[in-house]
Design the sequence.
């Protein structure tokens, strides 16, 4: 019998879909909800379930940005064969995404024992949520928001892509939170920062999702809960991406900053009360 019911799979799929791309930490939210529902958060089947449903959210970003992805990949392929095409921004951007993914891959492989061990503690998640909120607040306040997507450079891509390491080492920091904050500090406007975060996250998220998937399918989470959770994650993540891009076009990141602090404090409280275990 699966440790996760169909109803719980729906809830967890929705949580994953909402939080994967918002700058609020999907890891922290999943652990909190699992603990509140009485699901053993350290069970291999539960860990495997979380890895599998993440693939649904990754699929959502691939589908949502499919036209952009096809355009960029087409420009890259043309540039490999035609020197004149190499001056096109999309061709260069494709290479920037590839180069910007290298640091997180290298750190992920080198620091895997730490990432899977002491840094996976929910105490770290709670602290990172709050510290990351401060970084985001400063970035949104000090960034001049004057540069658009077409103004991005190789330096921007490397710095924003490299900032994903913060979320890798300190999961509560949030990959989206780290990349968006870095982009804002580089004076990109909020929409450009958000879109750059998505594009630079695609290779890392896809690679990590597939890597975890191969080990997660045989953990006993149950085929039906896995299928339901992944489908819900896909649908909710797609809607979440569309909402986020519209939201940042007109609003600051203050709402996310306040929410992250609240969740971090809540997580500290649940850990201190023994409701959750790190």
Sequence:
């Amino acid at each position: 019998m699966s440790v996760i019911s169909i109803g719980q799979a729906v809830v967890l799929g929705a949580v994953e879909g909402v939080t994967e791309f918002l700058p609020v930490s999907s890891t922290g939210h999943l652990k909190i909800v699992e603990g509140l529902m009485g699901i053993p958060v350290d069970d291999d089947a539960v860990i495997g379930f979380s890895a599998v449903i993440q693939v649904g959210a990754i699929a959502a970003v691939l589908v949502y940005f499919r036209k952009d992805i096809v355009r960029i990949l087409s420009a890259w392929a043309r540039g490999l064969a035609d020197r004149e095409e190499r001056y096109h921004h999309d061709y260069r951007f494709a290479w920037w995404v590839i180069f910007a993914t290298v640091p997180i891959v290298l750190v992920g492989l080198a620091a895997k024992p730490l990432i899977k061990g002491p840094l996976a503690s929910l105490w770290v998640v709670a602290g990172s949520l709050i510290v990351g909120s401060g970084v985001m607040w400063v970035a949104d306040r000090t960034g001049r928001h004057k540069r658009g997507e077409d103004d991005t450079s190789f330096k921007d891509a490397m710095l924003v892509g490299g900032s994903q390491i913060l979320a890798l080492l300190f999961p509560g920091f949030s990959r989206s939170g780290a990349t968006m904050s870095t982009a804002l500090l580089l004076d990109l406007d909020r929409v450009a920062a958000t879109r750059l975060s998505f594009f630079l996250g695609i290779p890392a998220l896809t690679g990590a999702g597939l890597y975890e998937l191969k080990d997660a399918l045989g953990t006993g989470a149950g085929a039906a809960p896995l299928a339901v959770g992944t489908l819900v994650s896909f649908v909710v993540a797609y809607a979440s991406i569309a909402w986020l891009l519209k939201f940042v076009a007109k609003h600051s990141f203050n709402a996310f900053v306040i929410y992250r602090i609240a969740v971090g404090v809540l997580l500290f409280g649940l850990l201190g009360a023994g409701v959750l275990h790190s």
